[in-house]
Amino acid sequence: MILQMAGWKANVPGAGASISPLGNLVPSPRNLAAFMKRILVTGASGLLGLNLCLKKHQNYTLIGVDRGKLRATPFELVRADLTEPGAIPRLIESVQPDAIIHTAANAILDACEADPQNAYLINAQIPAEIAAACEKHSLQLLHISTDAVFDGTKDGIYSEDDLPNPLGIYAKSKLAGENNVLAVYPAAIVARVVFFGWSLSGTRSLSEFFFNKLSRNEPCNGFTDVIFCPLFVGDLAETLFLMLEKNLGGLYHATGAEALSKYDFGRRIALQFGFDPDLVIPRLVEDSGLKTSRSHNLSLSNHRLSTDLGQEIPGVSTGIQHFHAQALEGYPQKMRSYQQG
Fold first, then answer.
1. Cβ atoms 267, 277 nearer than 8 A
2. What superfamily does domain 2-336 belong to in CATH?
């Protein structure tokens, strides 16, 4: 069901949800305070945005910003193109959120290299406009950035105090977005992330890459010289909402508790699903023929975040177990049922 609301098309929650006369999910009394908090989530069809909304829609009133890729979701949708002039002020006026989680980005590395102007528009200019609107209306803002702002040459673990040196247009535009947000609205949260999980298309995460290849008994490359700290997207969603509830502000590394190579990550996926781990072929990223440069060492410390939250951030092993459990439960198929035909 599509509702027209102040010039915006809003989709009420899909079948199976408990609906009040006002079109919202009915919370339990103990969750009422959190549920009444209205949170606008940009990039609602993306890997992070969709998983985040599906995981937490029963705990908060979530309104996902979508450009027509989704239907019949159990959370509200509003259709908007954030690149249109005046779109952001109109959206905030229409939705009246208490907070915004800005996940929308151009994260396709080669596309960013091919069109730097568009990359900077989406990854740097729009975040600045959102930050200005949040500052004007005193809204909480959680802006999503990337671990790729570092060049990967450090012999050790990166903290938030280390100086970024991004290699490609994507990473440079995301760093510009970070700087723009914090310059305009210092109270905002900027979270540098790297995550894995199931996506709407089934092709957007590294975990899906390995799953798709291995499930067809096909060999696949795993880079031995690229180290990262991935966090399962469900664990990241829990972490991000806790950051809002704790009213944090400033720059944080919202990454997993363990650093490993992408080769090791692929083998762990294989072992968890019962695939042949020897199908993951060790390879150097420099020999891969990829167009866009990749940083070798993206080991990021999450000590600041875990300290301020008062709890440890989950590691990759439990995350891969959750990823596997979702496959057994039919979660990827359920997710794709929300895709526009």
1. yes
2. NAD(P)-binding Rossmann-like Domain (3.40.50.720)
